[in-house]
Amino acid sequence: EVQLQASGGGLVQPGGSLRLSCIASGFPFSGSAMSWIRQAPGKGGEWVASIYAGEVENYPEFVKGRFTVSRDNAKNTLYLQMNSLKPEDTALYYCTWSNYRGQGTLVTVSS
Q1: Could you give the CA distance from residue 57 to residue 89 in angstroms, rounded to a whole number?
Q2: Alpha helical stretches, state H, 1-111
Q3: How many CB atoms lie within 10 A of CB 20?
């Protein structure tokens, strides 16, 4: 059974930082492309970051330079370091593999 458990969300002020984690199980994590997506209240899903085999990373323009995706294959864990957070980054954040999306973690950016 594929499981993707995200954590690390919370309330942060604009300009602050958070690091999200996602513990994965039920598939070969180390060789798999992984992604983060987010969904803001009342909006559709939005791709945030991906990391591929060989540790190649990819981001949409609106998070480049602010977000960094990484992984620890020994721990089957995916990370998302988010810096310089903005109110528009407020959303539920999910890690994904293939067609699977785990339980999200809520990030709220507000003063």
Answers
A1: 20
A2: none
A3: 25
> What pLDDT does 17 receive?
98
pLDDT score of 84 more than 90: yes
Helix, strand, coil content of the chain in percent (nearest 5): 10, 50, 35
DSSP for 94-111, written as a single string: EEEETTEE-B-EEEEE--
**What is the DSSP-derived secondary structure letter of residue 55?**
G
Closest of 65, 94, 89 to residue 12, by C-alpha: 89
pLDDT tens, residue by residue, 49-81: 999 987 899 999 999 999 999 999 999 999 999
From the list 85, 103, 84, the residue with the least C-alpha distance to 21 is 103
3-state DSSP assignment of residue 6: strand
